Amino acid sequence: MKFVSSQCSFDYPWNYVSASAWKKYPNEMSSHVVAVDVLRREVNPETGILTTERLITCRQPIPRWLLAIVGGRDTSYVREVSEVDPVKKTLTLRSCNLTMNHLLSVNEICTYSPDTSDFSKTVFNQVARIEAYATFQRLCNKIEDWSVERFRQNAAIGKLGFESVLQKLANTVPEGMFKEVSTA
Amino acid sequence: MGNLMSASFAPECNEVKTKYDNCFNEWYSEKFLKGKGAINPCEELYEDYKACLGTALTARGIKNMLDKAREDAPFEVGGRTQEELNEEFNKPEKK
């Protein structure tokens, strides 16, 4: 089992970042994400929290040795459940792979929240747990190592991709639409 | 002109999806984030989109995978697994 984590910061307030998160795909960097569908979405009347379940469809080449094990498909599906708390200003996304999960499980939790030292910024945290289930330890390690590397690459691409979306949208959003009222 | 929204995994659902997505994005920024999210004006559009999706999910064999994942990490608890819920339960109270 391996863990991967990263953090970064976006120079935009949380309201704007959370709204843009729904528009993250498509973007020119994350070409491996080919579709995003909303399966279920509800606001909890007691807590005010918006919960959304989404299906993410990815198409990304995988190495031949792995292709042979998984049966020659390069399309994969991910299920993601997210929660937005508009009062606490948190967006949390939990995802896991649907395909290949007899062989490998990748569980990821991402959070977006305001930078408490500077409300014009948003902090992003990402943690993933990667576990392979092959019979032989060496194969397990090989699958996990490949998955960690792929995860890191996609995370880096994802950050750049989201940045590009945030910039593009900022040029179309009227001045002051997402202006934060300082709560400091 | 805003960002193009993502396609649906079922191309036949793209049109109803776009209508729903546009409605949702407007509601999210103009109502939900401003504390006025109680009423959902996109419900009808969502029903159309959901109906289209339902057929496609079963036809493409994704429904079974989804149902299994839903058992392990239910929507009702924000997609948390039992393991995560146990950890949260056992965590000392944060001030």
Automatic annotation (TrEMBL), chain A:
PROSITE patterns: PRELI_MSF1. Residues 1-174 form the PRELI/MSF1 domain. It comes from the Eukaryota. Pfam families: PRELI. This is PRELI-like family-domain-containing protein.
Automatic annotation (TrEMBL), chain B:
The keyword Coiled coil does not apply. Residues 73-95 are annotated as: Disordered. The keyword Disulfide bond applies. Keywords: Disulfide bond. InterPro entries: MDM35_apoptosis. Belongs to the TRIAP1/MDM35 family. This is Mitochondrial distribution and morphology protein. It comes from Myxozyma melibiosi.
